[in-house]
Specification:
The complex is a heterodimer of chains A (about 220) and B (about 220).
Chain A lengths: L4 E10 L2 E11 L4 E5 L6 H8 L5 E8 L2 E2 L11 E4 L11 H12 L3 H10 L16 H14 L4 E5 L7 H16 L3 E5 L3 H4 L5 E6 L2 E5 L4
Parallel strand pairs in A: 3-8, 3-9, 6-7, 7-8
Antiparallel strand pairs in A: 1-2, 1-4, 4-5, 9-10
Helix pairs in contact in A: 2-3, 2-4, 3-4
Chain B lengths: L1 H18 L1 H20 L4 H6 L1 H25 L3 H7 L4 H31 L6 H27 L4 H27 L7 H29 L1
The chains are: A alpha/beta (about 220), B mainly alpha (about 220).
């Protein structure tokens, strides 16, 4: 597969508003793409379109080799999505939540411990209800939930939000490792300077279109 | 598929076990409904006995609607609806798993309400077999209808008020059939209770088939 994301003149509409207005972008395997742009330019919509959560109205859109206009659910099993929110069952203990996510993707109990250690979450917090964790700790659990599914395509929306400097380092290390093992990472973030060392490519969107690209695939 | 169904149901029941919403809030609230009816019809104990079957199902409807609401709040809180849609679990398994989770919680609710009806309304049970069959059929019908309509309301901002509005008309036939079957089981109506129980089984089967066939679509469009 030469491209993981291949969008040509893609138009997507959400709530009657064209959130992607003829977007052209190609992303190759192993890239770490930093999506930039002001609020409302289509960063989140692009990530959601890649995940098949919003339908493509016009143009050609292929993700991981699947035609998103034919079946936008098909690539989801290979995608790890982390949105603004954490997608956590907050009544469950940390370990219970991760065990559920692990069971869904066929990962083992050992993978749960490994993922929690990888995000630097102290073992004493594994048997604590998620609702009692701080915002940064919840973000770490959310990242562990994505990590456990070993996605081929990581789609992350403001992944560093709420993380302390140690958490950011953990996350950056995870993203670099994922990319070096062949996965592709696309994340939206406003934190340009912090992320320069992580991203292999910077893409700026404006008005639902590609505005600037530091290095196309 | 069975593994996925059990996985979803187990997760929902584990969340319930941790939060204690059914045991701590929904069951006492539904029991309170029975008590309020007991006070309201206190002057006419015979009327209370005649209507006991209907009042039981009204309390189940009331408490069960809250449980269905809760079952989908789990999937919408903290942006979980995206994770629910992104899940690799097949849509039919998600539907059946959610339905099984709701079914078990509604059974627990009925185990609290049943003795409540007997004690508060002075009901005598003539036909245990019919009672249990009708309770089973009604609970399955309630659970599958609830999950089917619950997912339609899940993606909507006003779901807390929309769900009962959608659900109560759909569940009216279950309420009617359940009431009639229970009245026969209580010996207050000489009608064919088994026919009403069969009606509920048919409603359950039809909604299960619709749910298995359409849940994926409803999830995407939610």
């Amino acid at each position: 597969m030469s491209t993981v994301v291949d969008f040509h003149k893609v138009v997507a509409v959400a709530g009657g508003f064209p959130v992607l207005a003829g977007l052209d972008i190609e992303i190759a395997p192993g890239e770490i793409v930093h999506l930039r742009g002001s609020n409302g330019v289509g960063k989140t919509s692009f990530l959601r379109a890649c995940a098949g959560l919003i339908p493509i109205r016009a143009g050609e859109a292929n993700v991981l080799g699947f035609d998103m206009r034919v079946d936008r659910r098909a690539p989801r099993r290979y995608i790890g999505l982390l949105g603004h929110e954490n997608h956590l069952y907050t009544d469950l203990w940390v370990r219970e939540h991760l065990e559920f996510r692990a069971s869904v993707v066929g990962a083992s109990e050992g993978d749960v411990g490994a993922a929690l250690r990888r995000v630097g979450l102290s073992e004493r917090l594994w048997s604590v209800p998620i609702e009692r964790l701080s915002a940064g700790q919840r973000r770490r659990v959310a990242i562990a939930s994505v990590l456990i599914s070993r996605p081929q395509l990581w789609l992350l929306d403001e992944p560093h939000a709420a993380l302390d400097s140690e958490g950011r380092e953990f996350l950056d290390g995870i993203l670099i490792d994922a990319a070096s093992s062949g996965a592709t990472v696309v994340f939206a973030s406003h934190e340009r300077d912090v992320l320069k060392s992580v991203a292999s490519r910077e893409v700026t969107l404006r008005g639902g279109r590609l505005w600037e690209d530091s290095g196309a695939a | 598929m069975l593994h996925e169904v059990l996985l979803v149901a187990r997760k929902d029941l584990r969340v319930e076990w941790r939060s204690k919403v059914t045991i701590g809030q929904v069951a006492p609230l539904a029991l309170l409904v029975l008590v309020v009816f007991a006070f309201a019809f206190d002057a006419n104990a015979r009327l209370l006995g005649l209507g006991a079957g209907g009042l039981f199902w009204v309390a189940v409807l009331f408490g069960g609607t809250l449980l269905i609401q809760r079952a989908f709040d789990l999937e919408t809180d903290d942006g979980n609806f995206d994770a629910f849609r992104m899940s690799t679990i097949g849509a039919p398994s998600l539907f059946l798993g959610k339905s099984l989770g709701v079914f078990i919680q509604v059974v627990l609710l009925e185990l609290v309400l049943g003795p409540g009806v007997v004690l508060l309304y002075d009901v005598r049970i003539d036909d245990w077999f019919l009672l249990l069959a009708a309770a089973l059929a009604g609970t399955v019908a309630f659970s599958v209808c609830g999950v089917l309509w619950g997912v339609m309301a899940a993606g909507v901002r006003v779901r807390a008020t929309l769900l009962p509005l959608l659900l109560i008309p759909v569940l009216a036939p279950v309420l009617l059939a359940g009431s009639r079957a229970f009245e026969t089981a209580f010996g207050v109506r000489a009608e064919a209770g088994w026919t009403w129980a069969s009606v509920m089984f048919v409603i359950a089967a039809v909604h299960t088939a619709i749910g298995v066939g359409t849940f994926g679509f409803l999830l995407e469009e939610g």
